Amino acid sequence: MIKFLTLIGQYFLLLKKVFSKPEKPYVYYKQTMKELVNLGLTSVGIIAVISFFMGAVITLQTAYNTENPIYPKYLVGLGCRDSILLEFSSTIAALILAGKVGSSISSEIGTMRITEQIDALEIMGVNSASYLILPKIIATLFFNPILTLISIVVGIVGGGIAGSVTGVVPTDDFIYGIQYAFIPYYVVYALIKTLFFAFIITSVSAFEGYYVEGGSLEVGRASTKAVVYSSVLILLFNVILTQLLLS
Amino acid sequence: MIDIKNLNKSFNGKCILSDISVTFETGKTNLIIGRSGSGKTVLLKSIVGLHDIDEGEIWYEDILFNKLDFKDKKKIRSEMGMLFQGSALFDSLTVEQNVRFPLDMFTDKSNEEKNERVNFCLKRVDILNTNNLYPSELSGGMKKRVAIARAISLNPKYLFCDEPNSGLDPITAIMIDALIKEITEEYSMTTIVNTHDMNSVMEIGEKIVFISDGLKCWEGSKNEVLNSDCETLNDFIFANSLAKKLKQTHK
């Protein structure tokens, strides 16, 4: 228990260091632009591919589970839209990003720690925590909502194509379904969750990497821990945020 | 000048450094020597503030460094340059960007001035035409040179080198030693070099501090080191058979 509380304390102390005033805003701006590419743009592909196929699977499963003359066909489109909006594009995509982005952040910072690059920054008088972590947090907070929007669009398109190609739901019905009883607040809900998840992924992974001690083996372990802890926290906050935002 | 008074440092209750008092002089290459695990690196990292010490005082001229807060330490740190054992160049930056990094962070110089300074530093350490290479594309000796160039880019008053010769062949090691000595004299810096390389001791050791099991056992110059009465120091210096034979011949 004491170890756990120490860890929590250490995490918040790191955040305090991260959010202190940047030494040179211009250098931080350049670093943030780099991170937007490293952590954001490079994730578009994987998010698009996974969203497309998940959208397709959601459509097919909804269609096969609602094979009943009582249910109108457009319900498949509605089901696909709401599943993607409410859960897939925010939570599942965040879990995927925890694997991709989280492990990358943790191993990058962990390697910098064991090869004394962080010590080199400290010696120069640079706030290493802020310089290394703040641009990553800003980049993911900015770009992950964009990834979520891409995921929503691609997921629904994937669902539409799968429904049409397999013939389980006609395109017109699907389009009618995705427009039927649309609640715009669901998009806001998904984006709010994404912001929380982006912060969790980046800060937890950076924390794991920043305090690595030892060698490459420990960097690997920290990377694994970063993914596991981020994923668990994402699931926990998913429950909390859902209760707070939808109740 | 850096003055250390009664420095104590322990990790998890295990004493690593005990009651170390020593003065490192300006314009001289000061060496900390000792066996692996003797506490050299901990001492160096304590001096630069990477480790918080348990007891004692670390004075940079008339400033008590270990009692300063992070903000005030930054002022002293902007006058420090450090060469790490593994060079610690930033992997994601090119040679030029590595040397330029301290200038970007701490100066308001124009781009032209920064470029001029970067090229001057790289020329000073005899590294040319490598500006756009990444650290992974450099040899061990080249990495050390680039690290020295980065360390001197802000004209530091204090230069710290942790095992500058580790992993280098004897000729490159001598070249790096010579470069450190030249730079120290040229900029009148206080340089502290951590080493267990006896070539370095004989090449550049103007002031030598011998650490053994966390204690300061001996202090003197390279001329005195060979004739010392300190048994632990003699065991360290004349550890290999060639050195032992040379000493017997000398006697």
Please provide a written account of the structure.
- The complex is a heterodimer of chains A (247) and B (251).
- Helices cover 85% and strands 0% of the residues of chain A.
- Chain A has helices at residues 2-18, 25-40, 44-65, 74-114, 117-124, 128-166, 171-179, 185-210, 216-246.
- In chain A, α4 (74-114) crosses α7 (171-179), α4 runs parallel beside α8 and α8 (185-210) packs antiparallel against α9 (216-246).
- The longest helix of chain A is centred in the middle third of the chain and has 41 residues, at 74-114.
- Chain A is elongated and about 70 Å long.
- Chain A starts with a helix and ends with a helix.
- Chain B is an alpha/beta fold.
- Helix content of chain B is 41%, strand content 24%.
- Chain B has a six-stranded mixed sheet, sandwiched between helices.
- The longest helix of chain B is centred in the C-terminal third of the chain and has 18 residues, at 170-187.
- Chain B starts with a strand and ends with a helix.
- Classes of the chains: A mainly alpha (247), B alpha/beta (251).
- The interface between A and B is medium-sized, with 16 and 26 residues.
Overall structural domain count of chain A: 1
The number of helical runs of chain B is 10
Using the CA coordinates, give the radius of gyration of chain A.
21 Å
Largest sheet of chain A: none
List the helices and strands and how they pair.
The complex is a heterodimer of chains A (247) and B (251).
Chain A: H1 2-18, H2 25-40, H3 44-65, H4 74-114, H5 117-124, H6 128-166, H7 171-179, H8 185-210, H9 216-246
Chain B: E1 2-11, E2 14-24, E3 29-33, H1 40-48, E4 55-60, E5 63-64, H2 70-77, E6 80-83, H3 95-106, H4 111-124, H5 140-152, E7 158-162, H6 170-187, E8 190-195, H7 198-204, E9 207-212, E10 215-220, H8 222-225, H9 231-237, H10 241-250
Parallel strand pairs in B: 3-8, 3-9, 6-7, 7-8
Antiparallel strand pairs in B: 1-2, 1-4, 4-5, 9-10
